[in-house]
Structure formats: C-alpha cells, structure tokens
Amino acid sequence: MTSAPLPVDGTYNLRDLGGFRADGGSTRPGTLFRSDTLAQLSPLGREQFADLGVVRVVDLRDDRERLRSPDILPDTAALVAHPIFPSAEAHIGRRLDIFSLTELIYLEHGDTLAAAVTMLAEPGAGGATLFHCTAGKDRTGAVAALALLAVGVDRDDVMHDYAASEAHLSGEWFETHIRLLQGLDIEVTPLVEQLVGRTPIEAIDRALAAVERLHGSTRDYLRANGVADDALERLHALLVE
To answer: Could you write out the three-class secondary structure of the chain?
Structure first.
C-alpha cells in the first residue's frame, strides 16, 4: 500500500487505490485512481495520464467549478460529471472548520456519495476509472474512503490515505489556490486556509464515527443511501484480487 502521488505533470494528488489489504485479498492496482483537478495537465501530463489506462473520469466538482476550470483529457478518456454538492463556495460561506465540513459531507450528501460508489462499481470500458474534485481531498476523499471501506479495507489504512493529501497539496498547489480564492473576492481567513489545505486524520475519524453511530457500518450507510447489494458485490469483484 502506498499513498504517494503518481508522476502526472499538472497534478499534485493523483494516486492509485491499489495495494490495500481488503476482504479476500488486496485492492487491484491500475483499476481505480483518485486525484485533484485535471484542468492543468501539460502535454507531458496528458501522455503520462494516458499511460495509466484511464478510460473514464468522474468529476465530482460543481457546475461552476467545471466551467471555470475544465478538465484537459486525452481522447481515450470519457468524462462523467457527478457533483457531490451544488456549490463548493457555499460551504466556505458557512464558516465551517475542516472537522465540521468533513462530517457534513458524509451526513448531508450521502445520496450523491452513494451514487458515486455505485458508479465506481461499473467497470470502465476496457480500462480504469479516475475520480476527482478540485483538491482531491474532501469530496474525493469521502468517495475513496467509502469505496475502500465497502470492500473491507482496514479503517486505519483508509484514514491514513485520506490524511496523506495534506502533504501532497502543501506548497505550490496550496499557494496557487489561495490566490485563486482571493481573485474571487473570498476573504482568506485561517479557517479558509484550513479548508483549502488540511486533511487531519481526526476529521475523517470523526466523520466515520458519525456514520457508524447512525448506521452501524459503512456498508449499511451506503445501503441506506441507495447502493444495492449487487453493486457492492460488483465493486468487490472489480477492486479486489
């Protein structure tokens, strides 16, 4: 298991979700990828991306985000838009900290998260699937966590995979996106900086604890939000070897 980013020029947080111990084996490399935005792929990055074998990209961003920074993809990859929530900027306006935001994503957007997991259970046409948002940490982190937990990956491994985003996004990525928010006339407070760049393990621990308290298990949470048992079986067959 590794949470190191893959070398795709123009990304900072693109990772293969293969190599985790799961029920009955381990997650299959080269099948499911998570990432930050693909809007800045260079020509080299497009070649590196094509080499991953990704044929389907699920964009979890809202409509405004996609229009402002559309993905740059090779012709071999089809784009599917699946917003987790209608407005990312609206959540910034709610003055939530990263702990409350992470819990809110799971508790207020279970339907769209579950639909994303169902989508991932459908194999790509002859290749891998990648899903992403802007940073690849909050919305992407939730979908990744739910998919991995659904196939029996250990909770601690899932939480450490979530937490790895913070180091990948520090420095250039973080500074660029702070300037972007300033250009949108959003006041960059310490709270906003936290939302943009941090992924403390305590945040996902708290969110998963809330899910478990309300539903008993991640699988039951997914079922309650519309994921069928046969979709969970397909996801396991697809991801675990």
So the answer is: CCCCCCCCCCCCCCEECCCCEECCEEECCCCEEEECCCCCCCHHHHHHHHHCCEEEEEECCCHHHHHHCCCCCCCCCEEEECCCCCCHHHHHHCCCCHHHHHHHHHHHCHHHHHHHHHHHCCCCCCCEEEEECCCCCCHHHHHHHHHHHHCCCCHHHHHHHHHCHHHHHCCHHHHHHHHHHHHCCCCCCHHHHHHHHCCCHHHHHHHHHHHHHHHCCHHHHHHHCCCCHHHHHHHHHHHEC
φ/ψ (deg, to 5) at 80: -125, 120
User: Average pLDDT for residues 128-141, to the nearest whole number?
Assistant: 97
> How far apart (Å, rounded) are the C-alpha atoms in residues 30 and 15?
10
7-52 confidence digits (pLDDT tens):
999 999 999 999 999 999 999 999 999 999 999 999 999 999 999 9
Domains and CATH numbers, the chain: 15-239 (3.90.190.10)
